[in-house]
Structure formats: structure tokens, C-alpha cells
Amino acid sequence: MPWKNGMGSTTEIAIHPADAKLDDFVWRVSMAQVASDGPFSSFAAIDRTLLVLEGNGIDLSVAGEADVRIDRETMHAFPGDQPTSARLVEGPIVDLNVMSRRTAVTHDVRRIKFTQSQDFMISAQTIFVVEQGEIEVVAPAPAVFLRARDAVIVDTSTPKLTLKASEATQVIAIQFR
Asked: Domain ends where: 101, 120, 143?
């Protein structure tokens, strides 16, 4: 779908509620290919967290503050209604953007590395995005295989989720409360 500012496009991973648009969602997770420097779209009353999935990074300037470098090891949370611009670090990137309406919900984003099986207790709406490697979602049944950039969404009706990796794997866990 086109960016709100018309300067690119994004792939929506999930949005809540399911029929929401860019001006009325409660939360949203998306990926974008960023090929040039420029301003970010403004989203009133939205908090954002940005991660770089591919590429050398991006320098983010929010509300005239000093630039923050975001690369494959870092992330940055910022208000989506503040003037924000970005400058690419040595070429294009693919980013993951998490947004939540601050009057309704908050979000927490973590990168998790593991090499075997790991159980996750689910206490809130949670999205797992595979960043590197492959995982098998083994509980609840039936098993599902996910590759890089695939995602699974669970809520508290699934109190425990078991993810199994056969190689070094990194997932991004996003919780909405």
C-alpha cells in the first residue's frame, strides 16, 4: 500500500481492527523498502518503533533532536506525530515499523535470538516476526513452519506458544497491551 506521504510503499503485516484505515487503527505492523532520504508520514496520537531488517541503517531525526542511528542491532521508539526525517546509511534498507494509538494501547518490541525450542507465555496480543532463520510453531497444534519475514499472531486464548529452531534464529516479538 502507498505511504501516507506518497513517497514509497509498505507491506502491511497486521492491523487492528482488521478493517481499520491509516487514520483509525489501534495498532499496525508493517515493512517498508526505503530507497531514499526524506520525511516520514505524520500520524496523530501514534507511538512508533522502527527496526532495520536489511541494509546498513538509517539516521533518524525526530523533532529537530540529534540524529539517532538505527541499524540491524538497534531500534528506536518515537512519537509518530513529531516531524521526522531520515537519511540512509550507505544504501537502501528494509524496515519494520510498529505503531500504536497512545490513547488506546502501548507496544513493546524485542529481538530474541535462540537455537532450539523456546516457550513463550502469552499475556497480551503478540506478533512474532521471523527476522533471520526459520522456526516451527509446534504448540498449539498443528505445526506451522515460518521463514524470514513470516509472522504469527497470537492472543491470550493461546496461553503458551512454543517456537522451535533448528539453526540460529532471530524473531521480533511485539506485544500490544
From this structure: 101
